[in-house]
Request: fold
Amino acid sequence: MNNNFNLENFISDFSKSCQKMQKKVFSKNEVVTTYIKNRNQLCILLNGHADLVRYDLNGNRTIVEHFSKNALFGEVFYTITTNNELLVEAKSSCTVLFYIYDDIFKKCKSNCKFHQTLSENLPQLILNKVTDLNMRIELLTKRSTRDKLLGYFSLLSTRNLSTSFELPFSLTDLADYLSVDRSAMMRELKLLKEDGFVEKVGNRIILLYK
Amino acid sequence: MNNNFNLENFISDFSKSCQKMQKKVFSKNEVVTTYIKNRNQLCILLNGHADLVRYDLNGNRTIVEHFSKNALFGEVFYTITTNNELLVEAKSSCTVLFYIYDDIFKKCKSNCKFHQTLSENLPQLILNKVTDLNMRIELLTKRSTRDKLLGYFSLLSTRNLSTSFELPFSLTDLADYLSVDRSAMMRELKLLKEDGFVEKVGNRIILLYK
DNA sequence: TATTTTCCGTTGCAAAAGCAACACATTATG
DNA sequence: CATAATGTGTTGCTTTTGCAACGGAAAATA
Reply:
């Protein structure tokens, strides 16, 4: 593992050097990919926003992950054990690089720089994913909608180094991410405002508690 | 990555070959370790059972992960981003191997076989952890206690290749794992029995639906 | 710019989940 | 083996959450 690995530089460089990558452009609401058992796909979001969503038998939608610029996704990061369908949906127009691999940890036969760098750094990239997943589990184990909202806001606050930040979701999608009913979440958000915990200006949240 | 890697053989072999490992024995309810920022610890449970638990500010306990024989845990698999304390508690008497590393992906200076094998296979071990985490997220995103119970039972059923299986938890702990109130869970479990979905004989669950 | 679609904000009511308390069973422990 | 500690099963009551529905705002689209 190379600790000086810079994901952004890496991503901006490799598309020149590698022939096996496919670049595609999607418009809003298009399905970018579905997760399929035993296919080995790695995807990189070059720009735009997309969500990994799951629909269950009751018709509930869950946003499993939210992806923005330079996010990595695909079956590498998700061994499929569920029967429910997993889709990646474009939330805005976006550009995605696709790469089907044989053995993700080995560089390809053509020996290009991209695959070498990728296989060297993949363990670290997977560890980053582990961190995300653990944070998500902590959110989901919170017992009340209020704690889920506050927990998520606190996470965004930390990530933005500020008590004020833009929500990356519509409120409708936020409910599907926190796995709660939208109207119940709206009610709770209102109470949080009334109780002086947060303010909301447009799509921006301001935390009022230390 | 070596696809023929056998975790069990690996674990049973290396303690002879590596000097940097520490073996310790714990009795029930002892704290095996706490997760500490910027320490690099990898632990292997040689026998017994242990849980990774988190206590939140409201006094709720969450069982984050349940470990049995040959489980791997420690900071490698959990970059700490939370303020809550994370403890590993022994659920029975158990034996644990500890290993503090500098760079987990590199073999150590003494060049022993263990570290070489470990660094070669760690990516795959981390991917296994990713799979576990994704399954856990799927459980936690289920909207009702009933669906959480059925989802968990279905998972155990798949894992045991049988519609009948032992619960690895006490019911009290199961509630803390599913992140629901114990008495509410008991009520729901009773309803599941009344509705003919499951039977419970001692600590064994029998699924009655196809 | 007119029109359609999506999202926001809200509410009444129903259902689910949480809380607290208790008796009894089972399991550890001196 | 007696006693303490922990786990199970249950219930009444309260609080939270979900569901369904609706009007208006905002955003997308023709």
User: Anything to note?
Assistant: Residues 143-144, 170-172, 182-183, 186-187, 189-190 of chain B lie near DNA strand D (CB under 10 Å from a C1'). Residues 38 and 75 of chain B are 8 Å apart (CA to CA). Chain B has a mean pLDDT of 89. DSSP finds five helices and eleven strands in chain B.
